[in-house]
Amino acid sequence: MQGSTPQEITGIIKREALQLGFAACGIAIASQLTRHEAPLKDWLKEGLHGTMGYMKNHLEKRLDPRMLVEGARSVIVVAVNYFPKEQQNPRASLIVSKYAYGFDYHFIVKEKLRRLEEKLKELAPLHQGRIFTDSAPVLERVWAVQAGLGWTGKNGCLIIPRKGSFFFLGELITNIELVPDAAFEKDFCGNCRRCMEACPTQAIVAPGKLDARRCISYLTIELKDRIPDEFREKMQGRIFGCDICQDVCPHNRFSEPTGEIAFNTLEPIKNWENKNWESLDRQGFNQMFKKASSPLSRIKFEKLRDNIEAAGSETGH
Ligand code: SF4
Ligand code: SF4
């Protein structure tokens, strides 16, 4: 396939992406994200990233993929649907975020991207590049918009038209020239403010602007310390992540269950009631979540215990 044109390679890569199970694939030109520099710097200056100090690192790399991959010309952006087939036990009021129902997504998205990269290498042997998923140096949602996948909602999530927002994103940055998609210029949020109104901690301080320090997702996963008192009454049962601003989004009525078996809901999430969560000990945590490579095992057992206690303090469990 040596000598294929950018058009041919682009067509084959997009078809391959769908065959690999990606729900969407778009391409952006690897260039500096000049428009996003000021808002990102302001957000950091205001301290809205909380203790996520790594957000401040490698700013120039985050704003220009050519600093991450020498000679980068294209950013291939993919989305993987994680909307679960089986919901959490409805009798449990201690709630886990949907993205964490199954096996750790980093492996899955990376593996699929690796296979896509193999295809690209076959078509363009001079390909040099890097794969990213949920990784700090890349402004994933910005690239997804640039690649025409969708728009960023007021809740800060990437929303894919007629598909919703329950997607993981991944990128393959390459030095190969591909045919870019038009950036997604529309915004179908309109006058809706449901996510902003539903957020129990008022973490969405302006449309698309999140104060991470107030967000339950941050408080239950990123923050290493005990959840501060001012938020413990407002958790609405969330013990790992929070989907409230996505659950209320009208665009998620289009969500369809994922076909990815690795995201099948783990047994404890499917069946446990509050009492099981409340009596979870270290051994059970290792057995149920660590062994299963669940995203829950990304936090320490003590952190999960505190989350359960904080979430239960409001529900009275
Ligand atoms: S994830 Fe939860 S806490 Fe964070 S902004 Fe959305 S609704 Fe608010
Ligand atoms: S809930 Fe409404 S405002 Fe929020 S992201 Fe969805 S459409 Fe946009």
Task: Give the arrangement of secondary structure elements.
Blueprint: H1 6-19, E1 24-29, H2 34-45, H3 59-63, E2 74-81, E3 95-96, H4 105-123, E4 129-133, H5 140-146, E5 151-152, E6 158-159, E7 167-174, H6 194-198, E8 204-206, E9 209-210, H7 216-222, H8 229-232, E10 238-240, H9 244-247, H10 267-271, H11 274-278, H12 282-290, H13 301-315
Parallel strand pairs: 3-10
Antiparallel strand pairs: 1-2, 2-7, 4-7, 5-6, 8-9
Strand neighbour order, sheet with most strands: 1-2-7-4
Q: What characteristic shape results from the CA principal axes?
A: globular
- Rg over CA atoms, rounded to whole Å, is 20 Å
Strand content: 5-15%
Q: Kindly report the average pLDDT value.
A: 94
Number of helices: 13
Bound molecules: iron/sulfur cluster
Q: Poorly predicted ranges (pLDDT <50, ≥5 residues)?
A: none
Specify the structural class. alpha+beta
Helix-residue proportion = 25-40%
What's the N-to-C terminus distance? 62 Å
Report the count of strand segments. 10
Order of helices and strands: HEHHEEHEHEEEHEEHHEHHHHH
**How would a textbook summarize the main sheet?**
4 strands, antiparallel
Summarize the structure.
This protein is α+β, with helices and mostly antiparallel strands.
What would you say this structure looks like, in words?
By secondary structure, the protein is an alpha+beta fold. 35% of the residues lie in helices and 13% in strands. It contains 13 helices and ten strands. The strands form four sheets. The chain has a four-stranded antiparallel β-sheet with strand order 1-2-7-4, sandwiched between helices. A hairpin with a 2-residue loop joins strand 8 (204-206) and strand 9 (209-210). Helix 1 packs antiparallel against helix 4 (105-123). The chain is globular and about 60 Å long. 43% of the residues are buried. The structure holds iron/sulfur cluster (2 copies).
